[in-house]
Amino acid sequence: MLGLMQDTPLLLSSVIDYAARYHGGVEVVSKTEAGRIERSTYAAVAKRARRLAAALRGLGVQPGERVASLAVNSARHLELYYGATGAGAILNTVNPRLFPEQIAYILEHAENRLVFLDPAFVALLEPFAGQIPSIQGFVLLCEREAMPKSSLANLMCFEDLIDAQADDAPWTPVGERDGAILCYTSGTTGSPKGVLYSHRSLVLHAFCATAADGMGLSSRDSVLLVTPLFHVNAWGVPFSAAMCGAKLVLPGAALDGESLYNLLRDEACTFSLGVPTVWLGFLDFISAHGERLSLSSLALERVLVGGSAAPRALIEKFDWLLGVYVIHAWGMTETSPLATIGTPLPEHAKLERQARYDIQSRQGRAIYGVELRIIDEAGLELPADGVATGELQVRGPWVLRQYFKADEPAVDADGWFTTGDVARLLPDGFLQITDRSKDVIKSGGEWISSIDLENAAVAHPEIREAAVIGVPHPKWQERPLLLVVPRPGAAPAKEDILRFLANRVARWWLPDDVIVVPELPHTATGKLLKTALRETYRDHLSRADIEAN
Ligand code: ADP
Fold this sequence. Notes:
GMP Synthetase, Chain A, domain 3, seven-stranded mixed beta sheet, alpha/beta, 16 helices, Rossmann fold, 549 residues, nine-stranded mixed beta sheet, binds adenosine-5'-diphosphate, Luciferase, domain 3, 25 strands
């Protein structure tokens, strides 16, 4: 017998309508390219999104067609999230930090009809966008007076476009299983692949992300959204925050420590989220200038860190310097992204600090809806005993089934998606990512975790960032090589670093060499670009002088 409840579709438009009705006056704050603060509200965002939906219909954009964004975090970009999807179109958020060839590939592969972009990215698109056949026009996310001169064909102004429309223009009727947002993986291995989220998957993800043991968002929060709107839907926060009426602060392009500090202070932010690289810069600023800042006046309580492993040193510093609790989360483009989250359990409340940092260094536990398991090379499930290490698989209602335009499913017959991450699962459900499968270091038949080694290295007081790669070795097949970026003014010595590590990792894990570098390469989403490092240092340990050691 079927249940007798209503089948109300789970649509993104219902989320912004709710925010407008019950939290209409709550602020959406944007910092512009010029550093100006602009204030809007959920009510205004909803009206402007409805106007945009009508404008898109007027331009002939049909349900299911794609429009792209190439933009930093701002209220207009948020309006596009709701306006494009509210017109039944699919918003393809493109990461402007990708190489131009990758941007061109994505825009073309998704067959975008329009591209919405910040004026700052006009020069980036001009050389190639005209050659992409599907694109019929470009809409600049700016005021009329700020419209730049450009060779891009059919250039429009966002404000002109929505001006002629009504505040109460209707949403285009869509089904909850229809596509809403299309994100591409960053393509560190092969061409970028498209992940097409549905209205339903995004709304379900937002419910779980908002929950107390998710991000714990509420109308009492003011959220500094550091994670870009072009990085996996800013981890779902545009929907989660609207769903509970949390204030949203959108930092624009300036993500340096001082800019973030000023926004946290001025907008009384209680919660923030972002990748470790951004927070390392922020904590450097706080360490260097802490004395002249009034740190105790910050309202910040918790910071969600994901995208790469949050080093233990980062977790500790947030606690010592600011009394902020780091919530470590794991996910990927293919998982919307939230899959596991490290909110504390009751038994953690009495732990002394070091033991608590151990727990926080793990990637958290599955949130409701997500199933996890690890498998061995033969595809057999391994025990969640904290010892066995295997490839991580995941499934659930916001995990992808098939890549955009792919012929085959991306999952096995039981729905398991293989993540490419190597992990341990603990008996209490905590996940510990030890590596990406392509980054694991295989030394003499044993595996060494590059993430564990990097975390141990950044605990060194003179090291700001570390990367460990496996480098071919004549005897051991591969051995770890450590590259470190020193803190400003520091000059750590190799022997000192190795002595430091010797107290923290197994002896046979100790890197065969340490190289101090001014900076490390990162992907467009802030992850260490290990493919480039492996290429550069491929011959490092086969050189005769090292062999002699
Ligand atoms: P891409 O796969 O395109 O590089 P994603 O943002 O989808 O971009 O990256 C997902 C990957 O990031 C995961 O598979 C994992 O390797 C890594 N990752 C994400 N969060 C964490 C974390 N908390 N700890 C370790 N690795 C993480």
